[in-house]
Amino acid sequence: MPVKLSDNYDLSKYVIILTGATDGIGKEMAKFLFGFNPKRLIIPARNKEKGNKLLEYLKSSKGHTDNVEVWEMDLADLQSVKNFANKFINEVGELHMLINNAGIETKRQILKTKDNLELQFQNIIICKELSRMLQNDHITTYSHHPGVILTNISHLNTGFSISTLTINTLARLFGITAEQGATNVLYPALSLENKETGKYYDEGIEQEPNKVAYDEEIAKKLWSVSEQILKEHGMI
Asked: How far is residue 116's CA from residue 218's CA, in Å, rounded to a whole number?
């Protein structure tokens, strides 16, 4: 039974950052969050044109977007991320919810960022380590798998790929909608239930992740390496 969002969430005291909101499930998440009247909904966007189109999309449902802002940021550029963070700290200074919605499907291709880093290395491990570090600060973290959805997640793939074709075909036949995928991600985050931090959710339901995600030594090492990379690039 798919999870469903309530109609009466009140986010009027919440400042929210939502990444990856110009396409796919991110766009639907923006629509849901906007409908719950957040204090400020800040959407980082690499493509300004797509950001403006998102504002028009949201405006069509409510008549205004006074509490929605599109800020320039490229997640594949560390300096761009740092500039965004500094601007946010200086101009806003409060944050109640950060939704890191971003992902690509590249098969065996290795794609690099502007800083010559592999385009996406992440996982549940970082989220669980962050939950341990913040466990006494009343900050909770969650990892989410939205489900199998036909979006443009594989748009960076080059050439013909049997595996990509197979996945896209299966997504068309058995996948869920982008709207349901957005619901699956937001449901645990907005739920009023007292949830334990660091948990993993698949289609909105708590699940057990790969056992590697519980390895604290690996998590600490990954965090340490990540910090070192940021130091080497002058970010911290």
From this structure: 23
Burial class (CB in 10 A: 0-12, 13-18, 19+), 204: buried
Residue 28 lies in a domain: yes
In a domain, 2, yes or no: no
How far apart CA 75 and CA 110 sit, in angstroms, is 17
Confidence of residue 148 (pLDDT cuts 50, 70, 90): confident
- Supply the CATH number for residue 75's domain: 3.40.50.720
My answer on whether 92 and 121 are in the same domain is: no
Is-contact 206 200, C-beta < 8 A?
yes
Query: Which residue range(s) make up the domain with 165?
Result: 107-235
- The least confident of 56-65, 126-135, 163-172, 193-202 is 163-172
Residues 127 and 221 in one domain: yes
Residues 6+ apart with CB under 8 A from 157: 105, 106, 107, 109, 164
Tokens representing 235? 């970010």
Judge if pTM exceeds 0.70. yes
Domain boundary residue among 104, 125, 157?
A: 104
pLDDT band at 152; cut points 50, 70, 90? low
Q: What is the pLDDT of residue 212?
A: 92
